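Two entries, shown back to back:
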Amino acid sequence: MRVGLDIRALQTYHRYRGIGVVLTEFLKAIELAPDDHLVLFRYDHEAPEAEFALPEGVSWEVVSLGQPPTQPLVRAVLGTLRPGGRLDVSEHRLNVFVQPDSANGLPTGAPVVTIAYDLIPLIFAAHYQPRMSLGALRRLGVKGLIGGHLRAYLYRWQLRQLARADRVIAISDATRRDLLLHLPALPPDRVSVIPLAANAAYAPTDERTAHAKYGVTKPYLLYTGGVDFRKNVVGLVDAFHELRATKDCQLVLVGKDFVTFDANAQRSLRRLLDTSPYAADIIRPGFIATDELVELYNGAVAFVFPSLYEGFGLPVLEAMASGCPVVTYRNSSLPEVAGEAALLLDEQDDLASALHEVFSDETRRAQMRSAGLKQAARFSWPGTVGQMMAAVRSTARHAN
């Protein structure tokens, strides 16, 4: 069996996000038969395959797709408008093509398996797809407003790509439900649910060198992730303010967005953090290495993830695998991931009171740590990749 795989996400900002994580773990755990052959499709400005070790004995080759576009958003829009502009892989005689990033489009010339992570830009269209209005113009500027509309157009095109795939792998039951609700053209029997997993590096450890490096000197709450509205970071900071009024503690916010604050919409969060009466106790280390993040998970009183919606919620699993108590919300895929191991809140619940409860009850935290480790052990990348490859083989057989 000849399997094509698009690895361009490893050459973009997606490398450190969900798509990049899936690709990296897929390549580390992939198991192929002796007569199988892997064909990697990538840009030719770098060789990401040199940075990961494919399992010994895997037969593979690389196909270059040229240089990445200098104006990726504009080029991508033009590509969707050009008839016959999709990648044609027929000359490579593939039995199946795996597309982990449907934003790159689905190729012609082979049956396609693609991965669906979430439908967040569609479900929260009012936030992610700006309307043409004077208010939006003031908030985003001309460039931001035009870029937002181009991205919205591309996203609708991407959804149409999903509907024509031979097999769609949804990373959670919640994502599958959303796909079938919002994409009526997608037959239910084409959609499989295969959950993600935490990297094996996330595990209990006694190391605490990262704490001194980043100025963590008190009991602390931890958050890692983005800062867009659905992450509800403002709600987390407000809850920390209430907790900090009675508990001498810190809040550690991990992620590059807490340092760069690139988007105009993030300015209010930056002001909130900069002017906080407890600003000295809000630690913002930016993006950090995995081994340091593991240490911070292990030392935290709790990992707090008050997200309003997640396609999977991988940080919850990483925290539990590290032995960290988790506080999160009962929405979207989060109950699937957390099971009964986390403190699950409804969005109208008082987050500050819940954090105070966890802070004050060591016995409860110990129970949450134990339950979290057991819950995390139910997920593994070898198991996930094995299920993915079974879906890939099934798709190839069905097509043939």
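entry 2 starts here
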Amino acid sequence: MPTVPILMPQLGESIAEATVIRLGVAVGDDVQADQEVIEVETQKAVMSVTTLCAGSVSEIRAVEGASYPVGSVLGLLEVTAEEAEKSGVETLESRGGGTENPQDAETGDSGAEANLHFAADDGEAYEEAPAVVPSVKGLPVPAGTLGAHYISPRMRARMDDLGIREADISAIVGTGAGGRVTVEDLERFLNYLEDWPSSHASPMRLAVADAMRRSWTRPLATVGRPVILDGLLAYRSRQKPKPGLTLYLLRAFAIAIQEHPMSAGYLIGEKIVHPRAIDIGVAVQVEDGVVVPVLRSIDGKPVAALLAEYDDLVSRARDRRITEADCAGGIATVTNFGTFGLTTGSPIPLPNETLILGIGAGVKKPVWSKEVETFLPATEAELVLTFDHRVVDGGGAGVLLNRVAALLAEPEKL
């Protein structure tokens, strides 16, 4: 009978691999066309691999916990000649490939537990060094002392072999000339950590680590100020349905950026490229990481018009069902870390963004009232703005932050 592969699909424009987290079928199961059979995880979302046509599962090559590049054969289906012809799929026999995984032959796959390849002759599995690995690997070491300012070619080659970045060796005190960290220093450090408890980093955790490493290559600074929320909270409580506080913050931030677009620009060489549209992301906490879906053209939509779009994006983000397109193209981000009971913080913008606005938890405090000349109880929260200091100075960031605070004081205009 003809054999049709179950392939790892192209899950996004910049996604080269995905990790198998659940096998939904077993050898011998009958499946229908477009049936979801394998669940995989990328850096941004959980997605499903579907069958190209109806048939019977003859082989499962994917291993739960393993990562595979796009185009890898995850399993095989036995189909009838009529089904293959009707669906128009390419069988392995028609391309003269037999049943060997072409991806395995060229690049291999990688997994958390094992790297298995299947030979066409006897079907037995054999181990091979992984060729596809997570894009970021590193050791969970604390920020350290001097010593890693120069890396020799020999040291660089050893780090490349281990998948270690410069930031990962910052805790090592070098014993080489001028305090240089040597290969021997690195090996001693790795031996020292060998019996420490460790855990496998998820694709989401690795993606966050990669983004934060790239973000921190820029000079970032944070400014903050208190904001009184009583008027906003009272106005919000009268709305049906009742929007979240974050949505008002998004809207105020969008208007402030629209009035001061250079603050959200990119410094490219000797040019500052201004934003084409006011598309702002919202940080959503998910298991082992954060995803940032983007709301489009917020400056032109009032809060009431944004509510359904916002609720849909946040809901899908929490379920890890957003697409790469949902997270692309943002010029800034809003994060409400007050939902965790935190009163202040210094969030870090994404590498492709200049700004991130955060708000802490509201706290009842005595605040001086000019009208009655006495202290009155008020709900106060800390509003913070982290920015790329190459593009925005403290004064410009202060103007932007003060404008956001002023807009939050007039929620009926949002």
